[in-house]
């Protein structure tokens, strides 16, 4: 399986995701956008708002992947501990970042910039800021770790601001062929196509609607001619099995 | 932070989640249901369909948490490798499970039970089956690891079948108080409540609608009287700040 060699991990920080209260919306967004940038999202973790857990996950992921993106835990309340944890992971002191402080001072009326909100100006020493065009309190980057907000609209704005500075490999293209076959009918032929196209990543995703099976075959590769050839073979396979492939993505 | 001492991890297996193609729906379901059963979902990971990644994650999680639930990768196609990987993680041979085979033989017409579908009868040696009332191919349990389907309807049916056999601690109760305050106004007072109630896990979740802030304070604990007392204090805090708390969950 050959994909882009530039990799990323996402670390979702927050009890609310683990309790089921909040459905994470950031992971699919980042997965899709990173793929467009030629960066393969290779792993994601969700950890609670506990320092030891966050530090361990940041450390494990930053050593392993080209880029790490964290979401959540950068607000003003007691459960927002991401900045401290990232500082600890890098063994750097947590400082009140002067540039972040200036941003908050420009946004809040003097009486409103209380101690809790001032915490949002804390970053590890040496971090550079990530702009927050929506609610102003910035994210930050330190080495390969990008610390983003958890609120999806803010996370997206932060990510789009930093995206032009990310260096990806060739973008991963994808084709999706859906048919009303049961997955098990397609499996042998699909495995054979996968063997002939090791550089194309072929996934098979079954679903059931009104009890009737359908299967989406997703092909992903950086090499367009090989992707097209593999998709052609999958389409032929589906037709051989008496169904009609629909291109659905 | 005191919560239930029985813990769980969810391991989501599948390239489609990391590529952003598929939004995971299983994690919030499991987080919520486990909490009701007195089991704290303490971590989740998403890994691609790669043997080394799946084996490493199964090993890390099963050593650390009371229960592990995997989702995905148990279908008939070449990218369904969860059973092999769990067998490898436990150092056990992968066998054609006779009981699983009988289930498939009862479901499929003889000509339809091809080699690909027969793979769905493979389990690590010594695994016990988890019933699949929807599409018949079973999941399985080995020690504390429960291997479930990725298709949400099937995953849920499997989980509900095994849920009565899980041993939880006291259920985690929660209260949610929402108000139209900006999070930063609430932060100092909320931190003080958290300090007075270390056994209640208090989270603060901001959102913005039409540019106007709102914040949901979620309190979770196993001890109902302490939970009620902490929620009372949070309500009073919100009123002191000139807003009206709404109980939203």
The gist of it:
The structure is a homodimer. Chain A is an alpha/beta fold.
Question: What is the element layout, followed by pairings?
Answer:
The structure is a homodimer of 249-residue chains.
Chain A: E1 6-13, H1 15-18, H2 26-36, E2 39-47, H3 51-64, E3 67-71, H4 82-90, E4 94-96, H5 98-107, H6 115-118, E5 122-124, E6 128-130, E7 139-142, E8 145-148, H7 152-162, E9 173-179, H8 183-196, E10 201-209, E11 212-221, H9 224-240, E12 246-247
Parallel strand pairs in A: 1-2, 1-3, 3-8
Antiparallel strand pairs in A: 4-5, 6-7, 7-8, 9-11, 9-12, 10-11
Helix pairs in contact in A: 3-4, 8-9
Give an overview of the whole structure:
Chain A is an alpha/beta fold. Chain A folds into two domains: 160 residues, Molybdenum Cofactor Biosythetic Enzyme, Chain A; 75 residues, Alpha-Beta Plaits (2-Layer Sandwich), CATH 3.30.70. In chain A, 38% of the residues lie in helices and 27% in strands. Chain A contains nine helices and twelve strands. In chain A, the strands form three sheets. Chain A has a six-stranded mixed β-sheet with strand order 2-1-3-8-7-6, with helices on both faces. Chain A has a four-stranded antiparallel β-sheet with strand order 10-11-9-12, with helices on one face. In chain A, helix 3 packs across helix 4 and helix 8 packs antiparallel against helix 9. At the A-B interface, helix 1, helix 2, strand 2, helix 6 and helix 8 of A face helix 1, helix 2, strand 2, helix 6 and helix 8 of B.
